[in-house]
Amino acid sequence: RLLELNISKLRDYLNYLHNHPEEIKLIGQDFLINVTYFFRDREVFDIIQNSVIPGIFTDKKPGDIVKVWSIACSSGEEAYSLAILFHEYIEKRKLYDVTLKIFATDIDRESLDRAAKGIYPKSSLRDVSRERIVRFFVAEGENYRILPEIRKMIVFSYHDVLKDPPFSRMDLILCRNMLIYIGADAQ
Fold first, then answer.
1. Which end of the chain, N or C, is surrounded by fewer C-beta atoms within 10 Å?
2. Chain centre to alpha carbon of residue 115
3. Could you report the per-residue pLDDT of 60-86, keeping only the tens digit for each?
4. Element (H, E) at 32
5. For residues 85 and 81, what is the distance between their CA atoms, to the nearest angstrom?
6. pLDDT at 32
7. pLDDT grade, residue 50 (50/70/90)?
8. What is the pLDDT of residue 3?
9. R_g of the chain, CA atoms, integer Å
C-alpha cells in the first residue's frame, strides 16, 4: 500500500490513514487473497468424490439432511464445486429424498456478494470438464453463470470463524482456504 500511494515512511502512512479512513478497508482487502478456482487441487476433489461423499451417505435415510460447511469460501468456487459433486452423486443414485445444504462462509463481504451471483470468468473453470461446463453452467458473454439448481444448494453468509461460534452437526467441513493464511495458534 505504501508503494501504491507513493509514501516512503510509516509515520506518513499513519497520518494518511487518519485522514483517509477508507484506506483501512483497502488494507483489509489486500489480506484477503482470492486465488481460488473450480476444483482447485483436483486430487482433493477426487478423494471427496470417491471416498468422502459415499461415506457420508452410508448412514443417511430418506428425509435426512446432509450438511456441508465451506469455511473461508472466498468467491464461492469451492462451495460450487462441492455442490456439483454432491448433485452428481445424488442424481446418479436417485437419492432425491435426502436434502443437501452447503453453508459457505467468509469474512469478505465483497467476495460473498460475487459468490452469491454465481458468475465467473472462463479462467475460473480451467479445471472443469467440458461435460460439467455444459451441464452446470450457462454462458453469458465472456463469463459463465452457475445453474440455479446448484446455486440453491448453497447458503452464503458472513462468518468470522475466529470469533463467531461454529456451525454444529456438519457432515463435512472444508477449511483449507483458511488454514493456509492463519498462524499455528489460530489453527
1. C
2. 7
3. 999 999 999 999 998 999 999 999 999
4. none
5. 6
6. 46
7. very high
8. 78
9. 19
Residue 45 grid coordinates: 476433489
- Secondary structure (3-state) at 178: helix
- CA-wise closest residue to 119 among 97, 92, 150: 150
Q: State pLDDT tens for residues 1-36.
A: 777 788 888 888 888 888 988 887 767 655 544 557
Phi/psi of residue 101, each to 5°? -130, 125
The pTM of the full predicted model, rounded to 2 decimals, is 0.80
Residue labelled with grid coordinates 486430487: 43
* Residue 157 burial (CB count, 10 A): 13
List beta partners, residue 88. Answer: none
- Residues 4/29, Cβ–Cβ less than 8 Å: no
The answer to whether 157 and 112 have CB atoms below 8 angstroms apart is: yes
All three cell numbers of 15, joined, read: 497520518
> What residue has cell string 459468490?
115
Residue count (the chain): 187
114 near 81, Cβ under 8 Å? no
SS (H, E, C) 37-64: CCCCCHHHHHHHHHHHHHHHHCCCCCCC
**113-152 tens-digit pLDDT:** 999 999 999 989 999 999 999 999 999 999 999 999 999 9
Among 167, 40, 42, 48, residue whose Cα is nearest residue 104: 167
